[in-house]
Specification:
Length: about 375
């Protein structure tokens, strides 16, 4: 029996015992069920042999720009002798490797004060992270792993000073799905009938689902389907509670609520990835495909403010990388000959910043807490068009 068949049977049995489940619960089991869920299983997920690419897989320059921004943040914080950079969902550990390598070379004082934390729920990924980072010859304690920010607080004895970073994390959180009907908002549940999963509509499972749209002044049209990422709100509030002073950088693909819930996305944004192929059926290949939905950056701003986070800015990934100086590597090179390495770098930069690639679809949100004033961050400054 395959993993997909096993997990399908487990979810089917759960529904037969407990009744229809929210789509968020179904998605949680499909992605995170121990050993069988997509992110909990031992299988190749990222890269050419996996299901998708992330920006950190494209080129080390991506992590280099994050390191440059982090070094400025450390300076704004007053050059603390000890500070933390916390990465959520570090995947194979490539961003951590490139970040630490770049920081050590270019900002040695910042590097010396740094403790790098990785929070990742996947045992498979943790092994890969430890393997790749072993190649850096890091001093003891430079990189540590934790299950949650609360565990970091417990281990170090105080709240976090530094930066909490995530890249393509929130889009993997389980989402509720709702649909507007003439008699009001309904939630989509998952049932099992006639040997297949089916969707049924019912009452809202949480009051926040109703408040969610009202607070953003969003009015769904009759028949419109939308995703609601309540887990993202809970996650952000948790980060804010654990952060004493510093920043939260969230990179993901998504939109603000006025664009996310307009007529162009009348059926929502839920989609699945398997072997670099896109589909819209979450009820096939259960445990063997990624399930995701666009991030609502307006919700992160609104509920972040309630949690004590101030908005530094929201820009496209393209603007962030250009602002941070990703093109400097080409401008400062004194090698004018054509070679394969330069071609690879140029093509990688193009993929990271061009509108038809990752540059426009991915956004960079930066929030901060505990800072009396807000100097302009290099990644958020306006582009100088010459």
């Amino acid at each position: 029996m395959t993993g997909a068949a096993s997990l399908t049977g487990i979810i089917k049995s759960f529904i037969e015992l407990e009744g229809p489940v929210t789509f968020a619960r179904f998605m949680e089991m499909a992605l995170y069920y121990p050993e069988l869920g997509y992110y909990a299983s031992v299988r190749e997920k990222i890269g050419r042999k996996g299901d998708y690419y992330t920006s950190s897989d494209v080129h080390a320059l991506f992590a280099g720009m994050i390191a440059r921004q982090a070094a400025q943040m450390w300076a704004i914080l007053g050059h603390p002798p000890v500070w933390q950079f916390i990465e959520y969902g570090a995947g194979k550990g490539k961003l951590a490797y490139d970040f630490l390598n770049q920081l050590q070379q270019q900002y040695p004082d910042c590097y010396a004060a740094l403790t790098y934390w990785i929070i990742d729920v996947s045992p498979d990924f943790r092994e890969k992270q430890q393997a790749i980072l072993s190649g850096l010859n890091l001093p003891p304690g430079k990189v540590s792993w934790a299950d949650s920010p609360a565990q970091i607080l417990e281990l170090q004895g105080n709240r976090i000073t530094g930066c909490i970073f995530s890249n393509e994390l929130i889009d993997a959180f389980p989402v509720h799905r709702v649909r507007m009907r003439e008699d009001g908002l309904k939630e989509i549940y998952v049932d099992y009938r006639d040997n297949r999963f089916v969707e049924v509509e019912g009452l809202l499972s949480e009051k926040l689902l109703q408040d969610y749209f009202a607070k953003q002044r969003v009015a769904l049209k009759t028949g419109q389907t939308a995703e609601v990422n309540l887990a993202a709100i809970k996650w952000l509030k948790n980060q804010a509670e654990c952060l004493e002073k510093g920043y939260i950088i969230t990179i993901d693909y998504g939109l603000t609520s006025d664009n996310l819930y307009n007529r162009a996305r009348f059926d929502g944004t839920l989609r699945c990835f398997r072997r670099h192929t896109l589909n819209d059926d979450p009820y096939q290949y259960i445990g063997e495909q990624d399930i995701t939905a666009n991030v609502n950056f307006s919700a992160l701003e609104i509920w972040g403010k309630e949690a004590g986070l101030n908005m530094a800015g929201l820009v496209t990934q393209s603007d962030f990388l250009l602002n941070a100086g990703i093109l400097d590597i080409l401008k400062t090179s004194d090698d004018y000959s054509f070679n394969e390495k330069k071609l690879h770098t140029t093509l990688a930069i193009k993929q990271l910043i061009m509108p038809e690639g990752m540059g426009r679809y991915f956004k960079v949100l930066i929030q901060h807490k505990g800072l009396p004033a807000e100097p302009e961050l290099i990644g958020l400054r306006k582009l100088s068009i010459r």
